[in-house]
Amino acid sequence: LISMGVASEEAKISPSDSSVQQDSLVSMTDVFLISLIVGLFTYWFFFRKKKEEVPELPKMQSVAAPAARDSSFIEKMKKTGRNIVVFYGSQTGTAEEFANRLSKDAHRYGLRGMAADPEEYDLSDLSRLSEIDKSLAVFCMATYGEGDPTDNAQDFYDWLQEADADLSGLRFAVFGLGNKTYEHFNAMGKYVDKRLEELGAQRIFELGLGDDDGNLEEDFITWREQFWPAVCEHFGVEATGEESSIRQYELVVHTDVNMNKVYTGEMGRLKSYENQKPPFDAKNPFLARVTENRKLNEGGERHLMHLELDISNSKIRYESGDHVAVYPANDSSLVNQIGEILGTDLDTVMSLNNLDEESNKKHPFPCPTSYRTALTYYLDITNPPRTNVLYELAQYATDTGEQERLRKMASSAAEGKALYLSWVVEARRNILAILQDMPSLHPPIDHLCELLPRLQARYYSIASSSKVHPYAIHICAVTVEYETKAGRLNKGVATNWLKNKVPNENGSNSLVPMYVRKSQFRLPFKPSTPVIMIGPGTGIAPFIGFIQERAWLKQQGKEVGETVLYYGCRHEREDYLYREELARFQHEGVLTQLNVAFSRDQAEKVYVQHLLKKNKENIWKLLSEGNAHVYVCGDARNMARDVQNTFYEIVAEFGNMSQPQAVDYVKKLMTKGRYSLDVWS
């Protein structure tokens, strides 16, 4: 187009020339134009061809990819002679653990089971399970957050919602893992159970509902001991004998190994901590440097802290309200004590290889590695072990009394359950404490490593806004430390590990493996919408990010609605977190209301719900007239429930509603995203 424009301009320059000169000029222009067009076409032709060749490689790779062949769990079951598949939706590893236990149980009844991650398979194949004789699908489904599926069950959940499959040949059972302190108790387990029936599947045993706020282990055992008799009755099979110890992995000790091939704490790819490559996620965390680690409280026995993680050059993006997940390390003194009791060289390099060669899970944790690395980075050694671990360990106790005690606690008898509850759960005895209190118990360290669950990432509400801090993530946390009923001092793994992080120091002392998990806890789309934030203690974390963002929006010239905070702590002069920052935000007019409850500064305790009642008229006005969004962050067991009940009272009083109508009003706010929770128990 530019060339044509130039030519027409040249033609206009000499209109008074003779006709010969004009013809000559036209012909020269034509030659110039034709040459230019041919040249451009030739260049374009070869350039385009070159570009077209680039995408050919990914196409060829995708055709050759073996994933499609492996995505059928039906073919795998047929190939390996399995007839029971136990799918798990697991966020912290417990549902996966239960699935493994159920799949191992199957052999007692002449059946063969396999545990399966729904993320790895095509679940539409459920309609084909009837092709296998005496087949059964079991689902151990945990509920995450506010009634959400776990990350690995998201695709399965989406498929269930959209599916119109005929599952009339499918036999199934569901065990849900939840927590009664949460609003949507066991929502995922209930949904899967209901939806499979709607699609025509046959339930062979009732839905099990495990409650982590009570005794999840006992709930599972109680369900399991009734589940298997129902399976036997349905298929006409009988138990072949007592529960027996079957090893799932075999030990291989590496005496001559290239240390560059040995895992030293990486979650996925070998050497991923030395050679970091985005994108960063649960299997590929980013090593963030701690640039600030300061104590927030001025007194008291607790240690409340503010940490800042540098995410420069990571390409990690986050929004206010998201969670940061960190992978902690166990205390080296606990690891050393386990090694001493078991008389083991912890620096022995080994692998635990799955005896089932067809299994997708080749190792229980990254291998090869050392026992020290496994016990430090990969295994949970601080939580009370579950009953199946005690049962397997019992065979290694040389004292008959200790052996019987372990077996009794692992049994389904009422006396055994009560003993497990008091001696292990309530006394918070971890594996080290059990080894110390049972001197004759000396299991092989490789079997212990096989039995212990994986050490899980810890989630924290991000205490910053990416609009203000695009290259940093802030954490607000309190160190967990308490004395058990047995008189031992137990410390929280992650918070004590974070407490000891030294800012800007070279080496691992300042590095934190982390990734971001997206959340539904979001500020309103319109900045002019009022917000009511309720977050006592470290529950203030996401609201620091929210207020920072509202301040930034105001600086950009946006109209920002009322920003109201209800915060609570024990003592004004001890643990009033972010006091100076909040005062500054209030002074700048961003924080329009700051209401603080100091629970122990007077004879009668005052909590955030009391301040809400005190300001009930204003609360109702913001809700009914301002379409305010409500956010609650912190303790689920007491605070969140009390706050919700207070909202029921306020709505009933000022909305002239009955109690059931007020409850329905608040529930509708939740459905519309106007009443959001970020709580933990």
Automatic annotation (TrEMBL):
Gene Ontology biological-process annotations: response to hormone
Cellular component annotations (GO), alphabetically ordered: cytosol
Stretches assigned to the FAD-binding FR-type domain: 283-524
Domain Flavodoxin-like, residue spans: 84-228
Organism domain of life: Eukaryota
Molecular function terms from GO: flavin adenine dinucleotide binding; FMN binding; NADPH-hemoprotein reductase activity
Keyword terms of this UniProt record: Endoplasmic reticulum, FAD, Flavoprotein, FMN, Membrane, NADP, Oxidoreductase, Transmembrane, Transmembrane helix
InterPro entries: CysJ-like_FAD-binding, FAD-bd_FR_type, Flavdoxin-like, Flavodoxin/NO_synth, Flavoprot_Pyr_Nucl_cyt_Rdtase, Flavoprotein-like_sf, FNR_nucleotide-bd, NADPH_Cyt_P450_Rdtase_alpha
EC number assigned by the record: 1.6.2.4
Enzyme class: oxidoreductase
Cofactor(s) recorded in Swiss-Prot or TrEMBL: FMN; FAD
CDD domains named in the record: CYPOR
Residues spanning the membrane: 25-46
PANTHER family recorded: NADPH--CYTOCHROME P450 REDUCTASE, NITRIC OXIDE SYNTHASE-RELATED
HAMAP family: NCPR
Protein name: NADPH--hemoprotein reductase
Organism of this sequence: Upupa epops
